[in-house]
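Review this fold:
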Amino acid sequence: MGLLNNIKDHFKNAEFSVAPNKKVKTICKDFKEAFGCTLAIYKGKQLADGDLTLNQLNQKTSKDINTNANGEVKIKASMKVGDAEKLFNDMYGLTVQIKDPAGKVCVDNKLTIGQAARGE
């Protein structure tokens, strides 16, 4: 069943993208709707204020967030968790953690997002 689910993840139409004018809580909500996993966005070592946009978060952090990046962060269920987290860091300078659907445990970076959502 795991192999079949992994193949399905490649063809799922769920794709997640991030815009710098979106609020943190909206990005996290959209991620949960797309993949069923929880996305945690951090400002330093603390969770970012959900009411701030990425642009506003940039003004409140010591680390620059590249909100003028030419590309978009696009994530699919077939992507490894570690690769997706690195993409957020590379594109926007954001530290993110992908957690289980309940938002309690960080998932293994070697799993795909689809596997994490299914609890594999």
The longest strand covers residues 38-43. The first helix runs from residue 2 to 11. The two ends are 11 Å apart (CA to CA). The chain is about 40% helix and 15% strand.
